[in-house]
Design a protein that fits this description.
Length: 208
């Protein structure tokens, strides 16, 4: 694909990679200088894609790699890839059920709103930078804190704790200084604002 793009005169590609290229579930915020060690098939394929971008530079095709963290927002439909815990639990709350938290809820993730991700991606298209660049909020939010904010945005609701899953005790957050420096980018949508927009979309979808 990259070779065909180069032959067709495409000047640049932006590859949407993932935090799963890092592989680890714990520790300090993930830095682009960290040695990738993906532990899932998804992460392995993302890292392979990054390597193909580097290879394509030899064909005259410029490329930038963006490692997205936990993207959420409107139009994150079920059956079209990963459904965020945000969408899943809002759907439960809207149905009058309790939000579900696996384990103690202290696992922490880096949630970044879809509009901010689009902004970063467009900037990467017109900026001369190789990557990889982390695209996240730079903030770790526990599932407990996230769920409490969702319930507040929804106007009430209950929480039930289910058995712990493979995410128990994990902490996955991005360092985003490199994206700020090279793209002139940083996220502008607060978590509460993003949750409000996501809930409004789900409500409009249920009425249509």
């Amino acid at each position: 694909l990259f070779a065909a793009a180069a032959r067709a005169g495409v000047r640049k590609v932006v590859f949407s990679s993932s935090l799963y290229a890092y592989g680890r579930l714990h520790g300090e915020p993930m830095d682009e200088a960290d040695l990738p060690a993906p532990a899932t098939l998804y992460g392995i394929t993302k890292l392979a894609g990054e390597r193909l971008v580097a290879h394509a530079r030899g064909l005259g095709l410029a490329g930038t790699v963006l490692r997205y963290f936990f993207v959420y927002g409107p139009e994150q439909y079920p059956g079209m890839g990963y459904k965020s815990v945000i969408v899943s639990n809002f759907e439960r709350l809207l149905a009058g059920a309790a939000a579900t938290v696996h384990g103690d809820g202290e696992q922490a993730l880096d949630y970044v709103y879809v509009d901010d991700v689009v902004d970063a991606t467009v900037r990467a298209m017109v900026t001369d930078v190789d990557g990889p660049l982390n695209i996240g909020s730079g903030q770790a939010t526990s599932i407990n804190e996230l769920t409490a904010r969702m319930i507040a945005v929804h106007g009430g609701g209950q929480v039930v704790h289910d058995a712990a899953d493979w995410t128990a005790g994990s902490r996955r957050v991005a360092r985003i200084e490199r994206a700020k420096r090279h793209l002139g980018w940083e996220p502008t949508t607060s978590l509460d604002e993003g949750l409000q927009r996501t809930l409004a979309w789900l409500k409009s979808r249920s009425r249509s």
